[in-house]
Amino acid sequence: MTHLPRIGRRSFLLGLSALAMSANARLAVAATAGTSQAEDGRLVVVILRGAMDGMAVLAPYGDARYRELRGPIALPEPGQEGGLLDCGGFFGLHPRLANLHGYYREGAVLPIHAVAGPYRNRSHFEAQDMMESGAPERLTSGWLNRALESLPNVPSDRPEVGLAVGLDLPLLMRGPRRVGMWAPPRPVRPPPDLYARMAETLHADPLLGPAVLEGLRGRGYASSVLMEEPQRGGGFMALAASAGTLLAAPHGPRVAALEIGGWDTHADQPRRLEPVLGQLDDGLAAMRAQLGEVWDRTAILVMTEFGRTARVNGNNGTDHGTGGAAFLLGGVVRGGRVLADWPGLSEDRLFEKRDLQPTRDLRAIAKGLLRDHLRLPASAIAAAFPGSSGVDAEDGLLRS
Amino acid sequence: MDSRPIQAAIRFGLGPRPDQPLPADPIAWLDTQIEGADTPPVPAGLTAPPAIADGYRIWLELEAAGQPGPGQANPIEQNFQIEAIAALARRIDTAMPYRERLVEFWANHFTVSKRGGYPVSTVIGPYMREAIRPHVTGRFEDLLLAVFKHPAMLGYLNQASSIGPNSPAGRRSGRGLNENLAREILELHTVSPAAEYTQDDVTAFARLLTGWSYERKKEPFGTVFRQSSHEPGTKMVMGRRFEEGEEATEEALRFLANHASTHRFLATKLARHFIADDPPATVTGRIEGILRDTGGDLRAVAAALPRMPEAWAPPLSKLRSPVDYVTASYRACGASGEAVGRLAFRGCSSLNQPYWTALQPNGWPDRAVDWLGPEPMMQRLDWAYDAAGRITRLEPMMILDTALGPLAPDTTRDAVRRAGSPRDAIAMILASAEFQRR
């Protein structure tokens, strides 16, 4: 408890100073002098907050235990109505990821499965902090910020070389290096799912409960269908499109981070997952469209803090788990295949008899990108991921 | 677990801060805050708080330069915001939140608002520092006098333009009474309509108050008594006779301040603010008795309120006003400084309680029903999410423990634990029914 105020105040001020810059980020990006073409690769990190269910978005339909564990939330096999989008005969993408599947077939998407950071407990907040700090402990800076420190040929007066897109400056981008921020200039409202949770906790209050229900109704949310309310294109799609525009500017940021919430699917998973998957898929497509030819120099890492239970729970949902999935996409990526050492789903192969066993370290993927895409020296990569000398950079992520 | 320490911080304070340990002895903690001297907040970037003359100087400069065009900043508005932001930052930082609550209560009782225009917005900072703060633990009659004699109040309720019709100035100009301040002192500040005063009382009181004005263009800046505008002759106010002249004002205000109806009226407002929307008669009766027996000693009242058993049960029975809600939110997250004062200033506006900008002289309402409504409720949820987005790197469960401790029910605790991101979790805390209450 005693350490909290210091860290809190510091983080708070960091956030403010970054916000103060955000309004100027677009102009600053356009106005600064650039680096040479050869060193102009772009790295985008998309954080999926809430623990995306890797087994739902990249289903191992070829595993004999898949249907047994997943029961009512298992998806039909490829070729059937509403079926998975096949990725090589064993894994299939969720059908709402049609854009992503199209890029996969082009060879520009590399799905990664049974992957996790070093963290083995199941707290969102600890897991997100460790995923972003790039260490097996909580740090006050993120690996992407520390990596920026070593990026060659970047003038120190260009904070917008690193860009956080959205209202929050994620830990991933916090640290010694000043970064730019860009947020859409419009009121921020909670997504419908969060409204619904707020309404749930307020429901019992005799004064506030009725007021919030009436307020939701007044805003056009029918309380009974709130969960079904599709998330309107707004949030992530606008952010992703903006990120693409900013990155595609002649001398735009080298590195950008953005995030999308809504992945914590404890109940009604199929219904809750579909809209966020749609936002992710549409958003990534919007980003690609905005990137234009810069797509060919771009790698996008889509990652989440941990996976979910292998078994469906009693509410058609899944609980916090361990091994999950990530995506790497972009013009530089050697995709069109699934990167996985599949551990299998038999009881003795599950982590603690409940979660997908991680067989690959998320840090190895990130290290591979820093080494082969941003061309950082080994010392810089070690500084970005302290305490990970046993985790080697993944080879062969990119087209040679 | 003893919940009284956190209840004290919520009910009588402005919500706990992570860097301010809860008091072991809540009553002693509250007593300490009403004993010490008051130190008014100094706005960021200044070495001393602006004085009345400083506000008027800005006004004169603006008049000389002409009104700012579209897109240009108005220096009076800027000055107002600097003061308001400093005051909000102080509320968020303070280790003496009970005193700040008392300041807010009495400032609201004696509302002056930016809506009163430049006569108020140029000197509202000095009003809070000079008229309100020094007296919130003093005697009510001294508070009333300080408020009456401050140019912010004389300007807000038009006293400066009230002229005795039979005074030399009145005869010369043909101008007459403005009974606004006289009426509001009776209705809002002292005896209240329950005292059944008449229009004749209002008029007579207005005559009695003539002459009080303020000087904004030359020395001495601030309040003046202009004998030439003062209505001659004796006046009868609520059955009591007052002579002509400056001293009679003080006499009349002390008479009203110590009227039994005033004690009853103040007791009800205090009990409503600190204890319950509809306070039990036993509580108002006790406060009324203290006011009567001590001659309006506000420190005695401030000491007595937390000693009433009714103040502790049930906990969290009052709804936080938007200003208190915003304040408590930033306090729970450990934020501090001028930058957060600025955010709070905007937050109060977006939640429809713009700081120091009450709609009417009766100030902001003090019951849950006055703040509750479907859209205001939604605005709180929206604001909570926005605010949480700016402070997401605090550990949500620690914020919850700081803000509510044992008063957080398991349902809220579970909902926060299960939130998908720190931002969602913090938004859930701030949106929770418990956090919205005090």
From TrEMBL, chain A:
It comes from the Bacteria. InterPro entries: DUF1501 (IPR010869), TAT_signal (IPR006311). Residues 1-25 form the signal peptide. The keyword Hydrolase does not apply. Keywords: Signal. The keyword Transcription does not apply. PANTHER family: BLL7424 PROTEIN, DUF1501 DOMAIN-CONTAINING PROTEIN. This is Uncharacterized protein (DUF1501 family). It comes from Stella humosa. The lineage of its organism: Bacteria, Pseudomonadati, Pseudomonadota, Alphaproteobacteria, Rhodospirillales.
UniProtKB/TrEMBL annotation, chain B:
InterPro entries: DUF1800. It comes from the Bacteria. This is Uncharacterized protein (DUF1800 family).
